[in-house]
Each structure stands twice: as C-alpha cells, then as structure tokens.
Amino acid sequence: MKPLHLLLIGSLVVNTLLAGYWIKSRAASGNNESNSETAGSQSDSRSRSGRNAGSADLVENSATDPAPNPQAITTWLDIQSADLKDFVRRLRAAGCPEETVKDIILAEVNRRFAIRQREVWPEQFTEYKFWRVERMNDPARIKKQREQSRKYTELQKEKSALLVELLGVDPERQQRVEDGYEDFGNWQEQQVAFLPESKREATLKILEEFQEKQQEMYATNRGIWDAQSRAEQRQLETDKLAALATVLSPAELREYELRQSQTASQLNHDLRNLSISRDEYEAIFDIRKKYGDSIYNYGDVATADGRKQVEENKRAMKEDLLAALGPDRVKEYERGQDYQYQQLQRIAKKNELPADTANKVYDYKSVAEDGAKKLRDNKEMTAEQRQTALWELRTETENTLKETLGEKAYKSYQKNGGYWINSIAPQKSPAPGSRTSEPIIIR
Amino acid sequence: MKSPAIILALSVAANIALAVLVISARSSSSAPNIATDGVKPSATTSAEFANASPFAAGEPNGIPADEATAAPGKFHWSQLESTEYKDYITRLRAFGVPEKIIRDIIIADVAKLYRPRFAALRPPKQPKNPNFWEFRNQGYYPDRDMTKEQRAQTSALRKEQTALIKELLGADVYEAMAKEAGHSDWSERMYGPLPKEARDKISEMQQRFQEEQSEIYAKAGGYIDQDTQAEIAALRKKHRAELATVLTPEQLEDYELRSSETAQRMRWELSAFEPDEKEFRAIHAFKQAQEELNAARNSDDYNPTPEERKAQQKKTQELEAALADTLGTNRAREYKLMDQYEYRNLFEAGISKDAVLQIVDMKSEVEKATANLRKDKTLTDEQRLAALRAIKAETENTLTGLLGERRAKSYQNQGGYWLRSIAPSTDRP
Description:
heterodimer, A: mainly alpha, elongated, B: mainly alpha, 19 helices, 67% helix, 0% strand
C-alpha cells in the first residue's frame, strides 16, 4: 500500500472520529436546550391542563434507567431527569454531595407540589382587591375552607412520604426537629401523641369525623347557642367518646378525656393560675364533668325556676369541690377564675413585682369592700359623716395599693380591673377643663 | 493519480475545521476561572461528605450512592465545587445547570451557613413538662422566648443572609422566584403599585415597625390592656408619620386601605355589607377619623371644656353626613345597621335585608308605643301592664314569623335586649 493511501485512510479515520465527537457535542447541547424547554413545558402543561402528577407518576417511569457513567457526563443534561428517582440516582452517580442532592430534590418536589397546592387554594393566587370581603359565617364558605384544609394536609403528607421515598428522610421535618420544634405534621397529630403509635391513626380518624360533624352542627345553627344547640353539642361529645371506646382501652379513653375532652379544655382555661397535683386535677375534672354546663346562666334560661336550678347546681358543685379539695384550695381555685385576680397577676408580672403581690391586693380588695359595706349599713352616721368616712377609706385604699403596686402598676390597675375602687366612694369630679386626672386625696 | 491527493487534502482540511469546532465546543463547557470574593459555601464537599453521609454505604430506597471521587476522564461533582460562592455559581452555569436549580442549591447552602448562627440566638429549649395538668411549657416558641437583644440580632442576621443571596443571585432573585412559582407579589398586595425603591424603603420601615410591635406584645405577655393598646396606637402613629416621608398622600391612603388595622377589621365587620371599592374607601376614611377622635377621648388627660365637647360632636356629625353622602341613603342605613351587633348577627346568619329592615322599623314603633303607654295617666297599672304584655306578645309573634322560632328567641339574647324591656316577663310578678 502506498504511503499516500495510508495517509488518506488515517485522515479519514480522524475525520470520522472528530465528526462523531462534534455531532455528539452538538446533540448534547441541543438536548440541553430542548430538555430545558421540555422541563418548563411539562410544568406548564400540568398547570394548564389541571392534571397533577401524583407522587407515583413522579418516581415510577424510568426507575430502571441506568445511572449515567461518569465518563459520559459532560453537561447538566446528562444528570437531569424528569423522573425524580432517576434524578437522585444520577446526582449521586455524578458524585453530588448528599446534602446538595437533598437541596435540589427538596426544591424540585416543592416546585411540583406548589402547582397542586395552588389548585387547592386558587383564591390566594388571584389579583388582590383590598375592598373584597368574605362572608365569614357562610356555611358554604366554611365547608369549602374545611375541604381545602383537608386536601392541603393530605398533600403535605404525600409530599413528606415522597421525600422519604426519594431521600430516606423528609428534610423539612428533619430541620424542624433540629431547630427544636415538635415533630408533628399538625396539631391533630399532637393531640394523640400520648397514645401508643398503633392507635393513633384510628383515633385521629374518629376525631376528624367528629370535628366534621361539629362543624356541620355550627353551620346548621349559624350562631344560635340555645338549649337545643347545647344538647346537640353534648350528644356529639357522648357519641365521640363512645366511638373512641371502640379503639381505645378504658385507661386510654380516660387519659384522652383528661387531656382533650371539652371538660379538659374548660379546665385548661380555668386552672391556668393554680398549681395542682394530678390527683387534684382528676378530682376537679370529675366534678366539673358531673355538672357539665348546668352551672351556667345562659341568656335563654329565662324562667325563675331555671335560674334557681342553676344556682342550686353551682352550690352543689361547690360542696363537692370542698369535700374533695378542702376550703383553702377551693378558695384558690375560685380566685384563679376571677377576672379581677387574673388582671392583677398580669399587671404584677408585667411590672416584675413580687410573686405574692396579686394575692395581697386581691385580699385587700375584700377588706376594703367589707369596710365600705359596714359604713353604708351604719345607721348611726349622718349622710355627711358616712360620705367623709367612705372618702377616707378610699384614700387609705388608694395609698395601700400604690404602696403595694408602685405608682406605675397602680395607674395601670386603675384602668384594668381596679374599677371597684370607685365603688367605695365616688371620686370628687375635677372642674371641667381643669385638665387634671389625679385622684383627689381626702385627708 | 490525482484523486487520492485531492481527497487527502479535503480530508485534512475537514480535520482542521472539525478540530476547531471540537475545541471551541469543549472550551465553552469548561468553567472560567474568575476572581472570588471570599464568601465560602457551607456545604461539605462531596469527598468530605462521602465520609460523613449516612447514605454513603447504601441507600434505604435502593438508590446507589456514588463513592467515586474525581478521576481523570471522569466527571465528578467536586469539579464544580469551589470554596467561593461566586466561583461555584459560575461553574454551575458553565456546566449548564438551569438558573432555578442554581438558586435552589445556593439558597439552601446559604441557609445552612447561617443556621448555626440563628440557632445560637435561639433560647435553649426547655424540657417539655410531661404533666399535662399543669398547663405550662406546652410549646416551644423561640421568637416569643427571645430577649429583645436576641430578636434584634436575629433580625440583623436575616438581613445579612438576604443581602448575601441577593448579591450572589441578583437583587430581584426573590421576585423572580415568586413570579416563576405563580405567587402574587406580596409587597404589591401590601403596599399597592409603587416604584421598587419606595417599596424597599417601606419594607424596611414595616420591618422596624413589626419588630417594635413584637417587642410591645412580648412585654404584654399575651394580654393586651389599655396601656398596651396606647403603646401600640402611638407606635402606629409614628409608623404612619414615617411612611408619609416616602409616600404621597394618595400612596399612603392606598397602603392603609390594604394594610392598616382599621382595614383588616373592616374586612371582618363588613362581611355581610359587601362594600364596593368606593364604599370601602369612604368607610375606611370615616373610621380612621373616628378613631382619632376616640383616641383623644380615651387619653388620661381628657377633660374637655363644653366648647371642645360641642366641637367634637359637630365633627362627628360632619363625618357621618359626609359618609352618608358618599354611600347614598339606603346603603348608609345598611352600614349603620351593620355597625350594630344585634343586626350584624342577623345579617351574618343569612337573614334577608328586608326582614332585618322590618325588625328595625318594628323596634322603632314598639319603643314609641310603649313610651306612650308609660306616659298615659288614664291607665291603671294593671291596664298598662296588660297593654305592654300584649305589645310584647304581638312583637314576638311577628319576630317568629320573620326569623323562625329558634332564631327569634335567640335574638333576644344576642342584642335584641329591647324586647325584654317592653314588659316584665310573665314568670315575674
């Protein structure tokens, strides 16, 4: 073979190799652009069509595609994949650090689920009109919002499951826990956290079912809170406990009631100013449960007999409490529910006063009010003498309170719960336009 | 033999051309070597991570982890990485990574860089009290439990983090992301259509206001008394004055229509009134003016002279007249009813406007009739009582016809107290 022929053959081989390499590079570059467009158009088409890719769609299709050989990777498009499982595999095959894999996949999953979330809450993405109001108590609106909430929660669960499937962990949940927050998807999960894991799902299902029924009841009654609504509410609570009894042991049901029932949430409010033991709590719980709402003077308890019965129930409940807790603890229990005492506690806390300040002022209030009553009942005094004595009592009360609370906290108390001071004796009115609001001290 | 020589020449020329194309294609995909600015990514490099990752030895979902590190001729992610963010971004771009993925990577990475610093400012989490009956330590709310200093430092750190992300990815990065995600522009929703510079300034003012407001709420410990209300009102006034330095009066009004407390409350109170834009604007202006008058009345040193009192009454009448003028007679009447608890309840319960207006008229007639009966000296006490009870019975019947039995009864306890004062209840002597 002639050298010329050899050179020609060699050159043609080089031609072929170079042309092949160049064509491959162009194809990769072309793919890069077209894949970008495809990725974009995929999400666009999902949005337009209203069809959502479920998590199964997101991961199944090319699960068997082999990960690319690192030698074949020349551009991002050799890594990118519309199939998330494949995408993870490709990122890992390319040596992408696991932390970055998580970042990329989490963002991509969020992007895909955002489209579906938008379909759940389309109102949030419409143009904002500041004058537009919504009928807050409209049953149809409430029902729709409940449905949206339910769908949103389901979507969140689905997303979390998908992330675990892809990455072995839900990075958002992991971060929440690392930051010190509770590891619960929502407050309902938190409600049943005290139960064994095996019973939570069934319990949650029952609670959700009854929450739905309760919302329906509210929607039907539309703000009416009468004997009928209260009876419906009681019946619902009874039915709920009966349904829970089918999945919970008696001890678990008791624990649920102590923590989550209507009586428990009432006690959560009433006992917030009282330090108690579990035994005391259970005693109060049982007594409150026994009397239920029969101790409240509702506006529609119109008859004299009805009102009398409420008073009788209150008296009987107090006797039960005295028997269970003793007089001192009952006094503390009652005081804790008094709005005046609660105000005092807040003011004392806000002004960083000693811990017993609220108790001192609260006790002094009884003393001052008793003193004023005695003066008013005293028939031996003339009207003028009585008035002077009441003013003196008021002055003494004000001075004592100022000394105990300090000037600043006293001023705050006057406006927030301390109105009873005026009922000892009316303050002498300043002249109109005199621009003084300082109390007149009678000496 | 000339042909092989010609073909060889053509082939060599083609080789040269192809070589140029290949070299230019390769050079366009290699990362340019740019200057760095000293900001370093937080994420561990792939090689470091391979040692630390719990997934390196095998994946729970069957996805194999790659243990390879950079080797000649093989791509490895570490080739893209850099200790400098800007360099890292340039390499990612050169590799063809789409901009949105670059944003995902960088924003997450920067967040990791800052996370330990944010964590250091959070108060330590107290162990949860397992005694549910003690009702304490029920939740961990780091923002609530922070000191003022910690809140200020957290805020400064957040600003620093945002500034870094904007520096790396562009000043409009967040707007671009929101647009891509199809989110409405929250700042436009809140501030109205304003130039970007004004928005940025207002955003800063708003942030400062929020921080100061949080401070007041934190101090209040969950209970808003009159003192706290006064502090909040003073802060709002200060904030409004500050906004007025940047916004024209029209822009300020637009901002307040969207974001003020008054506007937020109106959206709740007027839900059954369903105002249009013009009505909403008029009522908002009316309420703001009313609030200013009330703020003066509620102050500690409020003790007006008779002249001042008269002037205030006149001002109130003028405001009401101006509002009625804008709304028109019928809508002004509806608005007034909506402002009263007893009628708002009925509207919100879905009772028709006609029925509510009938009740309003009936109330007025009944009050007149009962006043006349009480003044009538020709009647004995028994006759007067019988007549009043007859009016009461008739009124209750009409109400039942309009509202249904349950709601008619319920109305008496939900604002319709005037029904009770027509005549004493039959079970009372």
